[in-house]
Design a protein that fits this description.
This protein is of the alpha+beta class. It is built from 18 helices and 27 strands. Strand 11 and strand 12 form a beta hairpin.
Length: about 650
């Protein structure tokens, strides 16, 4: 007999070697010691399946597969008989009632007389060992990973005692692992205890992890911001055995957020405090991304939210060159870093159009290109520019009129000399015609009809006196007009101490306007009340007022079928002389009626208006201690009423 190890098991096998020499007999006691020393050997079974040896009782004989042996899942007659039949080792895996999967090895044993037996040994299954080893290895690896993780990881049992505390938890909360393992969770002593317990109850009831931002107090008493995730810790059977919490110190992030919010608040304060409207546009399609409060005020929006509900196209005039297609190229140029400056016609929410000056430049916000537009309302500047333009035109016109007045005075003087010659000659011809017609009449009676030029004498004797009379009347009319024109244009020191007959002033003014009147209307009427009191003032200045008002009335008529009425009257109760100039013209707009007496205000630039006429009239009447008022209705006409204080003397008494 000799000893061998079979299949890596620590079992002693007796093999009978008939060809290798004599057998060797080992004493029973020594054999028992050897068998007991084998760590994995449990039983030895004979061919009758009776137990011949067990580690607990030594050598003995018991019935086949007694109860303990059977419960140990060792009794498998087929496996035992197979070993007896083959004489080879057999290894199988059985399910042990207490130990779970167990590796069972059976090997043949031959004593010195050739009687065979089977030895049975068992140890934990290799698979189980592998699994257990794997679990242990995985647990070690897992703990290593968690321990080196940058996030604080804490595990608590159901009694909220710490069962795990990684290195990051030491760093974040300040307690060392040995200080907290097996101890109650130290943070429970803080003011956040109720929050922690509530959060644990919630995750215990709802199961899914809880994520929240909170604060915790470190061991040294400092307060830190954390981001926290909690979940239930379960065993293999799915029963809750505790809780696990993963937290990150977000104090720096929170401080950065607070700083960012403060920075944004400062930006918003500056943004909204700007006296100009600010837009932030998308650089591609001009979508409005942000506006300030001044923009809302400028365009008529209640607030920023209302403004952002509208698109930029709704805020522009909407016709070329003030459309979105006109604006986009300017935005794209701004995106490329080229600042754009231009004037733009915008639209208020009320529909009113207004001018603005725009400065547009590309900026980078959160890594993306945007466009910032700074907008200023320039309506006042535009109005001043227009006013200056009108004033310049008016001054040019006034200068031209002054030049015309100077020339008119000289022309009137030049015309007056030949006109006097015509007037004197026509008077002389009228005088000698009386002698000529007596001679021609005698000749006609004696000789019959004859011609003077191509006109028969019978017609000429009636026509020529009328022609001579017409020449005299025309020359006298020219003389009167020249006299009035020279008087009107005469530059002399203004005196307001004259006593003036208003009716004569009106007649003198209308004499100069006769041609204008016939050109504009077929219905020119005037009613001058008799015995109107005289007024104190200046004839020439008052005549200028009547001329200006009459010219305005004539130019306001749309056709010759509309009328003009001029009248004078006297109010004894008020002791005032009243002059009324009323036309059936186009009228004056309501918003312009308060401006018509302002210097250089005119609606007739295209037709040569200077905007000075009514302003001069207002000044002249005011110098005469009087008033001038305008009443107009668009499409129906205008009435100017002048009131002047009357002198005590009646007309003709001076």
């Amino acid at each position: 007999m000799m000893w061998r190890r079979i299949a890596g098991l620590s079992a002693l096998v007796y093999l009978k070697e008939h060809q290798r020499g004599p057998t060797m007999c080992i004493p029973k006691k020594q054999l028992l010691n050897i068998l007991n020393s084998l760590p994995n050997l449990k039983f030895i079974v004979d061919k009758n399946l009776c137990l011949a040896f067990s580690k607990s009782e030594g050598f003995y004989r018991k019935p086949p597969c007694f109860e303990d042996f059977r419960n140990a899942a060792m009794c498998d007659p087929d496996d035992i008989q197979k070993v007896f039949a083959t004489g080879e080792v057999l290894s199988t895996e059985k399910k042990h009632s207490a130990q779970g999967p167990t590796q069972v090895s059976l090997f043949p044993i031959f004593d010195d007389v050739g009687t065979g037996m089977v030895g049975i040994c068992h140890h934990p299954s290799k698979i189980r060992q592998h699994v257990e080893n794997t679990v242990v290895d995985n647990q070690i690896a897992f703990e290593s990973i968690i321990d080196t993780a940058p996030l604080a990881t804490i595990a608590l049992d159901n009694n909220l005692k710490v069962i795990y505390w990684n290195a990051a938890a030491e760093k974040v909360l300040g307690w060392k692992r040995e200080e907290v393992i097996g101890q109650p969770y130290p943070v429970l002593a803080t003011s956040y205890r109720s929050e922690i317990l509530k959060n644990l109850r919630r995750i215990h009831q709802e199961m899914p992890p809880r994520f929240l931002d909170s604060q915790r107090i470190r061991k040294d008493g400092t307060l830190i911001d954390i981001s926290l995730s909690c979940s239930i810790l379960k065993n293999r059977q799915g029963r809750p055995i505790g809780y696990v919490a993963i937290m990150a110190d977000i104090t720096a992030r929170k401080e950065a957020q607070r700083a960012l919010k403060e920075s944004e608040a400062n930006y918003r304060t500056i943004f909204d405090a700007a006296n100009d409207a600010h837009f932030v546009f998308d650089a591609e399609d001009a979508t409005i991304l942000d506006v300030n409060l001044k923009m809302c005020e400028m365009y008529g929006f209640e607030n920023r939210e209302e403004a952002l509900r509208h698109n930029v196209e709704e805020m522009m005039a909407g016709y070329p060159p003030y459309t979105l297609s006109d604006l986009l190229p300017l935005i794209w140029k701004s995106k490329d870093g080229r600042s754009q400056n231009f004037e733009w016609l915008a639209k208020h929410t009320s529909g009113r159009l207004f001018w603005m000056e725009v400065v547009m430049k590309g900026i980078v916000i959160s890594g993306e290109y945007k466009v910032l537009a700074v907008v200023r309302d320039i309506m006042e500047r535009k109005a001043r520019e227009e006013e200056n333009k009108r004033m310049q035109q008016s001054l040019l016109q006034a200068d031209k009129m002054a030049a015309i007045g100077t020339m008119a005075s000289g022309i009137a003087h030049e015309i007056n000399n030949p006109n006097n010659f015509i007037l004197s000659n026509s008077q002389f011809l009228s005088d000698i015609w009386k002698d000529i017609i007596r001679i021609l009449s005698l000749y006609w009676e004696e000789n019959g009809e004859f011609h003077l030029g191509k006109m028969p004498y019978s017609s000429a004797q009636k026509t020529i006196p009328k022609m001579l009379e017409g020449i005299s009347d025309g020359a006298n009319r020219i003389k009167n007009i020249i006299t009035a024109l020279k008087s009107f244009s005469r530059q002399e020191k203004i005196s307001l101490d004259q006593t003036v007959d208003i009716n004569k002033v009106i007649k003198a003014a209308l004499l100069m306007l006769r041609n204008k009147i016939s050109k504009h209307t077929d219905y020119f009427n005037f009613h001058l009340e008799e015995n109107v009191p005289l007024v104190k003032g200046n004839f020439q200045l008052l005549e200028q007022v009547i001329v200006n008002l009459s010219l305005n009335a004539l130019e306001a008529l749309p056709n010759k079928n509309r009328s003009i009425n001029i009248s004078t009257s006297y109010s004894e109760a008020e002791n005032k002389v009243k002059i009324m100039v009323r036309d059936e013209g186009v009228g004056i707009k309501d918003d312009a009626q308060n401006l018509i007496f302002d210097p250089f205000f005119t609606t007739k630039f295209e037709t040569g208006g200077t905007g000075l006429g009514l302003s001069i009239c207002f000044t002249i009447i005011k110098k005469h201690n009087g008033t001038i008022q305008c009443f107009s209705k668009l499409g129906e006409g205008t009435t100017f009423t002048i009131e002047l204080p009357a002198e005590n003397l009646k007309n003709g008494e001076n």
